Protein 1
Amino acid sequence: MTRLASAFAKGHPALVTFITAGDGDTAANLDALVEGGADVIELGMPFTDPMADGPAIQAANLRSLGKGTTTADIFAIAAAFRQRHPQVPLVLMGYANPMVRRGPEWFAAEAAKAGVDGVICVDIPPEEDEALGPALRAAGVAPIRLATPTTDAARLPAVLEGSSGFLYYVSVAGITGKQQAALASIEENVARLKAATDLPVAVGFGVRTPAQAAEIARVADGAVVGSALVELIGQYGAQAPDHVRRLTASLAEAVHRAGNMSLGSSLRA
Amino acid sequence: MTAKPNSFRTMPDERGHFGQFGGRYVAETLMPLILDLEREYRAAKADPAFKARFDDLLEHYVGRPSPLYFAERLTEHFGGGQIWFKREELNHTGAHKINNCIGQILLAMRMGKTRIIAETGAGQHGVATATVCARFGLPCVIYMGETDVERQKPNVFRMKLLGAEVVPVTSGSKTLKDAMNEALRDWVANVHDTFYIIGTAAGPHPYPELVRDFQSVIGREARAQMLARTGQLPDLLIAAVGGGSNAIGLFHPFLDDPEVAMIGVEAAGHGIETGKHAASLTGGAPGVLHGNKTYLLQDEDGQITEAHSISAGLDYPGIGPEHSWLHESGRVKYLPITDDEALEAFQLCCKLEGIIPALESAHALAALPKLAKDYASDQRILVNVSGRGDKDIFTVAQHLGVKL
């Protein structure tokens, strides 16, 4: 079983956390996520033009690039993480241009070498899959796709085709870190997605608190939290890891327990 | 170089690719809308009523056809080929931008969209968008980099007079690319009711194609006017290229006339060698930004680098994907022109022709000192004067050390 598959097969929903590479002490913050109980880690690749991101992650991108973070630095962070944490899945998330700059084969090979399990590219939809997808699949790195409220039944098969690892459901039509969608609509959409795929479905965008994450975890295989963690890193700088660990721990507890509750209620029913 | 295509006018392919360029590199949220837009555009293109409405507005609202003008004194000055102007600066709102805005707002209404957003650099596209929104009674939000809001105050006020909300963008370099990022963020959150009127022949498919088609009225008119006036086609076309909508609008109807040479002028800012320029083809490399694959100013890690040009309308680190393809296929040549060369041409055009050109168009005019003498007096060089320069007088005064 792959690291990603194992993370979604622990008998409880998965907490998926996101931070931006090169923003703050990334190694210490990654360790804090693991210590806090994150099941999957998304490491954001900073980009000058993060079109799909809200203010919190935009600011993290600028802080990271302002410190001179390079693509080589990001792979070094990933490789060192893999050394320290052989079992925790690590996914790179970002935009197309830094991923294809030296060619998709180069990027996929470096990702595989660094022990990266999957790649989420925000601006390569299935229609442009050949720009990166074949290289990732050949290198054994999972191309993780996004589904959104606008992904209708006609499109869904194209989104699922060639994707692996998990399916990331973007719960709101919008940018990261803003409002959360109504739970009823999330539940309905996750059910729709799960009817079409065996991949685990993780839900993100606008999930900030343990209570929100628990609600998501009751209806999906995983909850993704990004902006709330990234804001802590922006706020506390070198002191961030303690804060990141504490928030992650309370998120993990809420998400993991939500699974028991939903299991309990379905057993009762 | 790869084998020459039989025609240069059949692009893009059904997936929106111009060779390796173009495409639909957008977030999944936007994909269904982009596909909808493409379907609706195909239907509109085949609908005689849509074309009739577009043509009627261009004639009676925009004031088309724009004149073809023989620039007699500039011709004498350079002593080479005949210099002709396509007078897009005489259009309503003072630039070619309005052609595209008329087409896109008709599409927006056809799709039942009730809210319009746009990005703008110099403010010309913002003014043109605000204008059509006023004309058709749709609410309008214009994203504009804070730096550009500052250097293009008259256009900001024009947009507000026309009823638009102008949102200054403070992220990144606070110029056109950041305004486009912010417009995309708005769009992704408001896909259900909002139409994004992109101002240049770039962005995800079908935008590069539809903007080109709406702007091709420039080249179709110029072709007919030139044949009517001189009995011959022009020998050389020159147009400034930022994103490249005025250039592709002029060039496209001539692409399969091998006797017509074409030059797109890129903004070289302080000079290519200084790194402070906006010449994506001369100084950039292929990459993916704002929905399309095209030449971009970027570093070795694919981070977008800041563009520089005296002209806010050319101050963008990318270029429309069809230009990238025409560049690689060799059909169109691209020439960098510096701020100083453009300023000189700006003044020369004012003095010799009594026409104040936009700084964007001044870049095209600045190619004349380099090229005109290579042409004989019976040959015709057609320059697209894409916009008027009233908006630029403050910038020009500042560079000439004049206090207004």
Protein 2
Amino acid sequence: MSNQDSTANQSVIATTRRRYRSVKNSRRLGRFLSNRLNVVGLLFVSVVVLSAIFAPVIAPEGPNEQDLFNRLDSPSAEHPMGTDQLGRDVLSRLLYGARISLQISLAVVAITLAIGTAVGLIAGYAGGWVDEALMRFVDILLAFPGILLALVIAGILGPNLTNIMIALAVVGWTQYARIIRGSVLSVKQEEFVKAAQLMGVPRRRIVLRHILPNVVTPVIVLATMDMAYVILGTAGLSFLGLGAQPPTPEWGTMLSQGRNFVDTAWWVVNFPGLAIMITVLGFNLLGDGLRDVLDPRDMGDVENKGM
Amino acid sequence: MLLVLVGVSILTFLLLFLTPGDPAETILRQQMGGRTPSLEAIEQFRQNEGLNRPIPIQYVDWVTDVLQGNLRESYYQETPVSTLIINRIPATLELAVAGMAVALTIAIPTGIISAVHKGKAPDYLSQFAALVGVSMPNFWLGYILIIVFSLQLGLFPVAGVGGLESLVLPAITLGSGMAAIVTRLVRSSMLEVLDEEYIDTARSKGLRERIVIYKHALRNALIPVVTIVGLQFGYLLNGAVIVEIVFQRPGLGALLIDAIFARDYPVVQGLVLVIAVIFVLTNFAVDLTYRYIDPRISFGGESA
Amino acid sequence: MEDSITRRTLLGAVGAGGFVSIAGCAGDSGDGGGNDDPYSSETKTGDGSSTDNNSSSGNNSTATGGSANVALSMDPTEGVWQVYGGVSPYYTNILEPLIWVSEEMKLEPWLATDWEATSDTTWEFTLRDSVKFHNGEDLVAEHVVWSFEQVLNEWSYAPGWLHVESGSVTAIDETTVEFETSDPFPTFPGTIAHNMIAIQHPDRSRENTEPIGTGPYQVEERTQGQRVRTSGFDDYWNGTPSLDELTFSVITDPNTRALSLQNGDVDVAFDPPKSRVEKLDSNGGTNVTTQLSPGAVYVGCNIYKAPMDDPKLRQALNYATSQSDLVETILSNIGVPAKGPVAESIFWSAHEKLPAYEQDVEKAKELVEESSYDGEALQFHLSNQQVDGELLTQALQQWFDDIGVKVDIQVTEEASFEDTVRSGEPHLILESSGTNSGAADYLIYETFHSEGDVNERLYNEEGTGIYNLGEEVDQLIQAGFQTGDQAEKEQKYEQALQRIMEEAVVVPINYSEYIVAASDGVSSMDLRPIPEMTRWTGLQTGQ
């Protein structure tokens, strides 16, 4: 892993100034939009965000309104996406579910970001034994099956949305810590940081003013993609029986609960599946787009997670 | 490296003891077909398994055993944990290799097309296609594959191990999840190589574009890809857990999940340790490969 | 194809002969047989020794050969089965106990033809003649003694469970075994009518995982975590197995199990998901059988946790619930609407005599008004292993909400679920009960007696409990548990259950049925209420 950091570091050095200079360059937006995929990603994400915001307005029914004797109805004018095992309107549940999915993703990403950034900055900037100790801890967590950690946390705290979020966050922050530490290490060598140090600028100020802005790009990209992986992770935990508590209309839980219907009441499982897919695709495309625009190369480390 | 293993094992120990659900009770209940064991039976079990002793002492005992090459026995059966793990390795290894092969099969062509036609329709299409796989929760993808390829087309068995045909669907399920990542790698690596001078040289010599791409660029582009892909093996287990459940493959992932839910502590501890060793070793191997490929790369003090 | 249609008729005719033959011991033996039950009064013929299946009636040509693959949710190669050479006696028929359990949940003479209580604490079992082990040797009393010793030494809980200590099983002669129980234990025969208490030959090998039993199929090959392949045992004492080869495969995921059947990878699949039942039944090529089991699903009310200590609230919840709606919709008509917590198939379930709480929303609302319920959300716990549990609890949540009672659902992982329940944390608990043996007494004892396992912890620590109503019910259960007389047992247990339902300690949901799906060629499946006791001897695949 270290090597990736170092390669990333080198390129970060190479691209930092260039990137920094062009922050205000509006061509960026043009470049971003010129890639159709980015537009598609933006579109997908917007659809999900809008659904979440306007769920109560658009949804034909409440997400938890049951109608046992009209369960598993196929899509119709009344229920455009059919009804589920308890006769609830699938479309309504999906719309409300968008809120929950986004909520979870945002929360997890925010927690991982906070922990990861803090640890990464401290390790990278402090160096020495602090760095050593923190990075060892990261190594340990990385070598640890995330699923076990998540299961134990869900087990101890009881499976519900908050605890799923904690579980995914505990598993997820290490990547940020590594990337940020790597970036900090390389930025630290930069002339302007050294200069600031010599001028007696306080450490906190150096970190905030000079280092943080320089490591922001990979983190933004990683965070965007993480939004996607959190949703997939929730679905995976649901499959293992550790999903959101019923009747929460969480997509992963809906998908997992409906998994026996793939070829019978296909709407019960495939619509939540599609919702997840579109969202994950959207965030991934967005992340790719951001990366290309902000930093076309060397984001190899920003990869692969999920359960 | 040793530190990581010690850390991982301590963490496992602590986590297991934090987990609610008494192993003695859980295991005896399971053995008794769902009936709850008597307090004496529970006490007896704890006594036998040394669960009454203070946690640090239990840990030291365990480490002592492990250092003598003894991963202990499962609570449920007399089989040594090491045997259980060894029995399960082939299924997971097979799945991991096949999954990786699928990922590469998808990723290399799409990555190349993407890079060569950068910014044009084929680039967008192949990037999009590669992302579809990773965007589907893998159990859903697994069931869909079963229904289409097993039930409707009758091409593959639904589940189990043995023979290539039972490996195809699980490998696709696992591999397509990774394809997007590898495609990204291939693409960016390819773009980088295509920028290099020697490619320009080759072009200026009048070589056909196709030859330039496949002979010169690809070879160089794939080296970093393959090494980074090697690293992903460490992560494959997470995906393998679900794929192994859906396709009923007796592998390490399924074993881990069963053991966690069944509170079979020796198996969980042994397995986590083995996984950590695999992880550390792959990291180490990749580090070495890097050094070999590019001696200029220097390492910080953190080679795991 | 005579043999495929005659199973039931023959079973009726041949099978009950066994019950007649043990009638003599019934008086003292407690739950020792079907003697007092209506079934034994039917006119039966038969030789009294052959109880298994159609092909046993002296006509060995019914054997059709062929092979079948049965998909189980459990792994027959894993678990605690070293004692039996590493293969599970559940489902597989490789090993057999002294007593089997019949279609009517009665004790069925098996390797023992007869048993009798010779005193309060001694039992004499007579073994069947000319039973052969897979290695060709005859079964004698010493083998039984040896087998029990194995079990008693292997499982620390076995002596407490069976009320038998190591050393108290003795061979009186070649065909008679005496058991001395540690205290008067009238349900001893029923308790050992259990797959786990199987008889095996001392030459079986733990190390090389080689079981030697007396069953119709013997192990050929086992692949850990995948399958056990068995072949028919020609010298089986109870008919000739009709298949050459029978394989038990483990497929833990219910959906995958059903899909494997649909795909023709397996011939029989236990417990497919209910959502696939219709598909499997209407599909050309497969069909579905359901069989009533001795299990029940109900909501338990923690009567020591306010506000559930108010019977009015508990009754209100009962009036809010429509069992038949649940069975008809969520359960796809699999299972029977319940009136009590004990399966109807158990003779003392009191099903007929229990108060009926028909769904009556108005009445329920009134009761809630009168009760001490203050609007606080009740914690409703269930295990994530409970099949259809999340759907049932959500439907109940809606109904309870309709009468003004708020409920929060908490799904927990199985191991922590049991812990949470016993600590008395939840208000409501989705429970499912059942038995794997011929003795069902513990179903009522462990759940509703103050010293039963659910209540024990809190009862001893704080003098409370979970589902135990107290002294009166305890005494009724105690009396029923200790009597050997069927009628008295029935009467005591019924009284206890009536009290339990009057006080609305539970909200019954359904008596369980289990589902077995098979390809159309499969016939003569001999399902038993206890699914693990399914007989395979007569199974045919029509190939």
Protein 3
Amino acid sequence: MIKTEHLTKRYRSLTAVDDVSFQVGPGEVLGFLGPNGAGKTTTMRMLAGFVPPTSGRASICGHDIETDPLGAKASLGYLPEGAPGYGEMTVRRFLEFIADLRRLEGARRKARLDHVIQHLQLASVLEQSIETLSKGFRRRVGLAQAIVHDPPVLILDEPTDGLDPNQKHEVRTLINDMARDKIIVISTHILEEVDAVCTRAIIIARGRIVADDTPLQLAGKSRYHNAVSLQLEQPELLAATRAAVAALPAVAEVEVSERDARLTALPRSGATILPAVSELAARQGLKLKELHLESGRLDEVFRTITN
Amino acid sequence: MRNVGIIMRRELASYFATPLAYVFILIFLMLANAFTFYLGGFYERGQADLAPFFNFHPWLYLFLIPAISMKLWAEERKSGSIELLLTQPVTLWEAVLGKFFAAWLFTALALALTFPLWITVNYLGSPDNGAILAAYVGSLLVAGGLLSVGSCMSALTRNQVVAFILGVVTCFALLLAGYPIVLDAFRSWLPQAFVDAIASLAFLTHFESIAKGVIDLRDLLYFAMLIGFFLLATSIVLDVRKSD
């Protein structure tokens, strides 16, 4: 269990994190979202025990981060922003160093090292020094050191930043595999990631929590929730179709994209417009390439509440 | 204390993973021998002792020790690895001690590699080996003292060059604290009691008495307290500035 109460961090004139309270329980994957500079990294650094809070409290599995920092750190795996490491060390020596600090011994030490090396596919670079690795490998080494001691709580600051799509997929699969019995907090500004791995999302802006919900519920707050998007086969009918759709009683607004001959009809709040729009298309004999119902756009919600 | 050992071993290995260790040891041995034979007149003196060797150690250390200590914390802060280290279940004090002992052990190794001189002087005559051992201890204590100062300077900045310059200047002031070049700077505006206190901080006076072969408890206590003080200062500085 991660618990924060009124967590606040001030730097001279700047309040980086302002009265943040939340709880995360086992099985939850919490996505920490926010624009750059919103306070995500500072919050994670406080949880990881790297910067002390100005006021408020936080605990990891019952260990208060200020009164029992070693207990809190021992229950935690942490990937700092940018996945720093010791450049001159080989991957193997580095992971062994962390395993030693994490008090892993004997057969368990070997088993855990083998496990992370296999799961993060590090076997091919084990004897290479960290400074010679690509960004993707470096990030994976960072993840490996965070999970080598199999901690109940994982805090990962931008775990997929700088990875290519295949590597992103691998890391997300890894996070999903671990999600069942762990508490995971990841920070990101990639919204697709929230859909891919998170069971809950907290959006933070200017140091404050502005939304805390499941990704589905958050998307439901979008103007595009239950909107209907249709793509025409005949672009010349765009203007006429637009007028017809806009005339439907439950439609609040119509957006047009000329590039791909697409119309998006936004419903009045709470209304359902899919039947009406598809009936209209059938009546007018429109040829459609595509017709679908949108569940809501997370990026639009994100922009609305963080601006 | 187990963590101190783990951190120390990692740090020590990192010296040898780069050319730093080899370059340092080579330069140290070359300069130590050059000073002994050319400036110290090892042969011309006609005495079977290592005084000309040890007399130059503080001056050799003045530049070489900050070259080792500059990276202790500045590099960790610059690369961000300090965040990784201090979010492991270790205390800041363990990390400070581990890194300091690694640097000290490394200088001890460099110092030990001057043993051919000791063999030479024993071959040429019959020196007081007890005095030589005491001088080695004294030299190691001076190195430790300067390293603790350098560790503190390295914690102040993310820039290794700045850490080096701060280290040299502070070490210079502490080496010569008993001499007019330093004391005159304070005499005009500090009460005499403070000036005397600064004078008593001088490295050289404590080193010289040990180098003569007399290990006085007061001199040992002086170095122990000095090292303790600057390591404590290192951890305080880091606590405040680690995340800047």
Protein 4
Amino acid sequence: MPKHYRPAGKKKEGNAAKYITRTKAVKYLQISLATFRKLCILKGVFPRDPKKKVEGNHKTYYHMKDIAFLAHDPLIEKFREIKVHRKKVKKAFAKKNKDLADRLLNRPPTYKLDRLILERYPTFVDALRDLDDCLTMVHLFAALPAVEGERVQVQRIHNCRRLSHEWQAYISRTHSLRKTFISVKGIYYQAEVQGQKITWLTPHALQQVLTDDVDFNVMLTFLEFYETLLGFINFKLYHSINVNYPPVLDPRLEALASELYALCRYMSSGRVPGNSEPAGLIEDKEGEDNKESSKTDESELRLAQLQHQLPTNEPGALMHLVQESTAADADDADAKECRSLFKNLKFYLSREVPRESLLFIIPAFGGTVSWEGEGAPFDETDEDITHQIVDRPTQSHVFLSREYVQPQWIYDCVNARIILPTEGYIVGRVPPPHLSPFVDNDAEGYIPEYAETIKRLQAAAQSQVLPLPSLGDEDMENSLVEAIIDRSESNEIADKKRKLEMLEKQYHDELRMEYEGKTFSNRTADNQPDVVDKSDTKEADDHMEDSHKQAEKDAADISKTLMSRKQRGLLQAIEINQERKKDKVNLLKKRKKNADSSASAKGR
Amino acid sequence: PRNPSPSRRSAAAAVVQGEACVEIAATMMAEEGTQQLPYVRETVLKKRKVNEDWAVKNRERKAAKRQRRRDDGKGAIKRPEDFVREFRNKELDFVRMKTRLKVRKLPPAETLNSKLVFAIRIPGTMDLHPHMRRILRKLRLTQVLTGVFLKATDATMKRLLVVEPFITYGFPNLKNVKDLIYKKGRGFLDKEPFPLTSNDLIEKALGEYGIICLEDLVHEIASVGPHFREASNFLMPFKLKCPERRLQMKKKPFKDGGDSGNREDKINELIEKLN
């Protein structure tokens, strides 16, 4: 019962008035449990955990304001309409009235979730922050089959496939991809869009088997919401780079199973604004330009629109656009590094490599890519190809002008941000370990061997930039100057440290001699007193060590005593975590040692 | 996962749980000095158990549903009129088949648009003449809404003409070939079907013909290569999904406004509806 209804003799206050159990909430809303679950998912309502559970610990509690929030939503009425419509159809079929059933099925009640997206994400950045789960779910369903038993519809799977390809095309076009990692579950990607890091997981391009342990109703409700969300985000992102949305693909490329390439081609051709832009976008731009002035006359608006349409006829319009895009892109050094990683490289993908993933990654880092089959931009016999990605034990024909590498080389180059040497990735060879870019090795305390190698290669690549002062780029000059300053400072610090160490050593030696109270002349004179002196020295050293340990322990105890109980517990938790981490690192080192010893044994 | 939730809340719950674990572990170590015992919250264990119970019940419920559907067909009373009608339908189908073979002249297989044919069994009557039933079994189209890839030869086209009222076929494009094999393909190895979730099984079955991965299989089927027969026999018939609104599936030929027979390139639209 809500709080506002108070029958005589029954008052509710405190948690009893604030929280409501699930059964009572379902009764209050007068919908079924399945519809209640669906509504909670769409509106973002989740159970609460009150400290005092009025009706027992075993029940699920919802906040009363959340339930009122659901009660006032138009969706609840729409769901009731859908239920009534389904009953009507069932009744018509039962009465063998096929005409009525067909008429009812032709006009089903539908609903849209656009209002919910605007309600839950007031600004665009809020939507981008919540995009990880959305992208993972959409990419998962794009790879699932439409099986008869489940309620996964064919149209929904096609929609997910289209949305995922559109998202990948945008990331590839704007060079926003930052990290990739191949795992057993699938391929992880991380992109940076408008300052937000977005990470998602794509299943491998193999068949997915649906298990019966999964409740697809809940997943389909989430998917319904996420499809709408990704549609909105794609719309806004595409318009931010002056491309029409939804895109119109080349039907020939679509028929040849090359949707991602068709999307990239569409984005390249659709770059020019002007006639292709809708009028609303022009008005939006006008609004942005005239923020200062509170009034806008019709004549001024018309004149501005004409001025905007004018540059499409001038020859310098494209140069202006290029300059604008260059200026905008110059802000982000990370994006600049990513866009030029694979520049001037030309890739050809063999049939057996994961084509969709590499078609997404290689253009995102500035490379040119082709594959086997119709609709590909160039053929295998092109002499300009620099790398061919293969994963097959034998090759039909080997061209001497290119390198044959395994697909892992691409992912490792992307994570290292440099072109790695290809010796380790040649066909037929076991590639180096594929390291996760999401792990911070310094924080973990264990740096794998290959990570060390990559660091060295990165340092070498950085040092190659130093002897190029002739470039006129300001960013390059600044980075060069900073590099020089850092190098000189580090040299000075190293020198100072070395001197200090030498001085400290001398001081320690002199102190020890003074403590012993002996000189070289005394030592040479007597032999038997030397033995006695040595034993005395040992005892003295032991005493010194004991005193040192005691001093350290006393200091620690004093500091612990000064802490409060909460701080002491926190310190103990921190120590336990550090101990656990050390154990993990030791386990890794032990494994590595065992692997090395077994490898050497095999070598014999 | 039964209730997938945004990862932020999961992370928050994990953090809270971790803190609880750490606190209790610290207390135990402070008191007893023994090794830390594993700790999982009671509600988490309950939720896990409920999920497992739900999975078991769900499996049983689905099996019972399938059994019930299978039992519905048994025990039905058939009247003599049904037998008579069935026999007459068989005879009529046979006569129509012979007439169709006599009247219709097939163009040579080389003049067709493509060498690859995808045939789908459409819903139809149970009253099949034994001759047609035998040919459908040879084409492996014994179940409704299943499909197979075939090579467009004169013999194959003649067989398809014989069973035309019960199938529809056409020339698929590369996109649909790829979609069908990637999503619905099932291999047949050691007298047992298995899903194509790994390249090792494909290499084990077809490695001697140079087909070592899923993409090789797609290429062989799409281009009708020299080992098309082995590749096609390796793939089980594809089970397609019934659309929301049931197709009318009239027995008239497609060019006459029905649903059976040769659709040529329009088969792609149908495949996109069913896959």
